[in-house]
């Protein structure tokens, strides 16, 4: 991750007793940044599964999408999930441009590109990363100087440009959530004690669903449960005041920042790190102040190519050399420890065997692997402006402006990229004779996969439907006559959730039944039921239903999604929300 940061060194104090079950359903995860080669991606996913690390936080930008998708899919195949820190172009723009409308629109477009490319495998999107530490923001409002006050952020041009970008990003995710029916969530991250920035962003229209936080506490410092250096009630009370679930999406010991940190077990400062991690994880596990959904340890492996201290935050030296830090995270997550690994923890007095066993017993069962998701597709666009479309038959029709190679054969585009279309032409994309996307002239980022049809459409005064492009050539006939193929399945199933109604309240940990109707022009093959993004049931015959149990969190909102799939792999979905009291 591009980290413009000095990490937060928190304050923490005396340990609380470890109970058999956390106050809230709590997942443990890890930061792993980017996808890699297939072998590395498989190894990482396997480590997460063994250690019961259910979530990963990755970076997402317009880089190697194949490596990213491979890593995410391998984590999902093991029952895990991924949240991402969105790195749109504004991440590297510190100009404080006064064109706020332009900044917001560009951030919206960049975000829509990335989300549409990944919404089939990722639901949780964080807006940038550690915005309080951006150099231009610190010039206007030094980090940890504002507390809960919004006044320092008002009338500041760099804060205004940041706010515009975040607003555009948030709006894009919300719009795609509304159009797709997918349970996409926006994460807005905080660090330090400058809660006033979060309040300012909220007042200016930046909306989010989950509040993120980065914290690196030392062993000897005050408790995260009540340290008033962070404001009244301590940091968790401040986080809870925004009324959102919380994810601690970067967490490790503050000792790593010290020059004396040895990165070697048995050495004094490294052992202090382990003791501090244990103490603070115990407190966070049993606290009842904030609805903490997950804790992501930063990070999975050391990064030797980075400077000190960024090179030594790993729970492993490399993928074949774990540290005791990984064993400790495994214990809290309820994962699998060898006898030798358990002994590394108990011999140091970090945890007892009884505590390790209790956390393993209390750990939620691994989530079932999700069913394969269809590739993402653009949202439907307005009808075309004229009736004079012609199929694209050569790459010369589209002038590449982004370095991508366009291969067009019979009107079928086999690659995506940035294209420039002349001012009197509209580019239309078809799937089975249905217009799915239309652009105006200028630069346009296109999400097209094998099978999309494209036509040029010279604009005329009178709007009219565009003709369908010529179909691709049929395969050579078999020697003997064959039956005519069945009509193409062009429609996704229609889905509705019949019970419970939106906004229904249940007691926490309540068990209830979800029922749904699903229809399709050809036939529904299966209906999948999800609670908070995790698949709970699959039903293959009407009437479709699923029994669910709410988590133990009080006063929280939970998302139910139902997906229906037909034989062609097309998916329709419906979403509703319930509350636990």
UniProtKB/TrEMBL annotation:
Residues 365-383, 464-486 have a biased composition (Pro residues). Residues 491-504 have a biased composition (Polar residues). The keyword Signal applies. Residues 362-391, 458-504 are annotated as: Disordered. Gene3D superfamilies: Glycosidases, Immunoglobulins. This is Uncharacterized protein. The lineage of its organism: Bacteria, Pseudomonadati, Pseudomonadota, Betaproteobacteria, Burkholderiales. InterPro entries: GH (IPR017853), Ig-like_fold (IPR013783). Residues 1-25 form the signal peptide. It comes from Ramlibacter tataouinensis. Keywords: Signal.
């Amino acid at each position: 991750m591009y980290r413009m940061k000095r990490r937060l060194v928190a304050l923490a104090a005396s340990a609380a007793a470890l109970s058999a079950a956390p106050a809230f359903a709590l997942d443990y995860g890890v930061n792993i940044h980017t996808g890699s080669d297939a072998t590395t991606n498989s190894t990482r996913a396997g480590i997460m599964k063994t250690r019961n690390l259910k979530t990963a936080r990755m970076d997402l930008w317009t880089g190697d999408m194949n490596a990213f998708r491979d890593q995410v899919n391998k984590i999902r195949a093991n029952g895990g999930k991924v949240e991402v820190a969105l790195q749109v172009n504004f991440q590297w723009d510190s100009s404080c441009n006064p064109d706020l409308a332009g900044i917001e629109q560009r951030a919206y477009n960049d975000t829509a590109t990335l989300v549409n490319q990944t919404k089939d495998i990722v639901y949780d999107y964080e807006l940038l990363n550690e915005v309080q530490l951006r150099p231009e923001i610190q010039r206007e409002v030094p980090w940890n100087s504002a507390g809960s006050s919004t006044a320092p952020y008002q009338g500041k041009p760099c804060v205004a440009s940041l706010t515009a970008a975040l607003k555009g990003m948030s709006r894009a995710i919300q719009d795609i959530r509304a159009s797709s029916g997918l349970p996409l969530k926006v994460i807005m991250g905080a660090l330090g004690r400058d809660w006033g920035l979060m309040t300012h962003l909220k007042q200016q229209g930046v909306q989010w669903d989950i509040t993120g936080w980065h914290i690196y506490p030392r062993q000897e410092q005050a408790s995260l449960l009540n340290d008033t250096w962070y404001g009244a009630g301590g940091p968790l009370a401040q986080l809870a005041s925004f009324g959102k679930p919380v994810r601690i999406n970067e967490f490790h010991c503050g000792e790593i920042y010290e020059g004396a940190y040895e990165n070697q077990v048995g050495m004094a400062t490294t052992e202090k790190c382990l003791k501090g991690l244990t103490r603070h994880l115990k407190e966070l596990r049993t606290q009842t102040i904030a609805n903490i959904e997950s804790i992501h340890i930063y990070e999975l492996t050391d990064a030797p190519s980075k400077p000190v201290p960024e090179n030594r935050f790993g729970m492993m030296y490399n993928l074949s050399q774990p540290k005791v830090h990984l064993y400790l995270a495994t214990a809290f997550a309820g994962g699998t420890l060898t006898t030798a690994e358990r002994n590394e923890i108990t011999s140091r007095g970090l945890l007892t065997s009884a505590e390790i066993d209790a956390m393993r017993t209390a750990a939620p069962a691994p989530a079932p692997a999700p069913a394969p998701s269809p590739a993402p597709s653009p949202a439907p666009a307005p009808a075309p402006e004229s009736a004079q479309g012609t199929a694209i038959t050569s790459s010369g029709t589209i002038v590449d402006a982004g370095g991508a190679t366009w291969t067009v054969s019979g009107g079928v585009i086999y690659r995506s990229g940035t294209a420039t279309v002349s001012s009197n032409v509209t580019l239309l994309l078809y799937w089975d004779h249905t217009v799915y996307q239309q652009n105006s002239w200028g630069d346009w980022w296109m999400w097209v996969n094998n099978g999309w049809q494209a036509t040029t459409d010279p604009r005329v005064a009178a709007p009219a439907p565009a003709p369908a492009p010529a179909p691709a050539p049929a395969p050579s006939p078999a020697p003997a006559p064959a039956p005519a193929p069945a009509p193409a399945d062009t429609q996704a199933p229609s889905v509705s959730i019949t019970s419970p109604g939106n906004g229904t309240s249940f007691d926490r940990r309540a068990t209830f039944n979800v029922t749904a109707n699903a229809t399709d022009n050809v036939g529904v093959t299966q209906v999948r039921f999800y609670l908070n993004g995790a698949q709970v049931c699959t039903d293959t015959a009407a009437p479709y239903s699923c029994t669910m149990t709410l988590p133990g969190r009080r006063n929280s909102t939970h998302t139910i999604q139902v997906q229906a799939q037909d034989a062609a792999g097309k998916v329709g979905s419906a979403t509703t929300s319930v509350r636990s009291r």
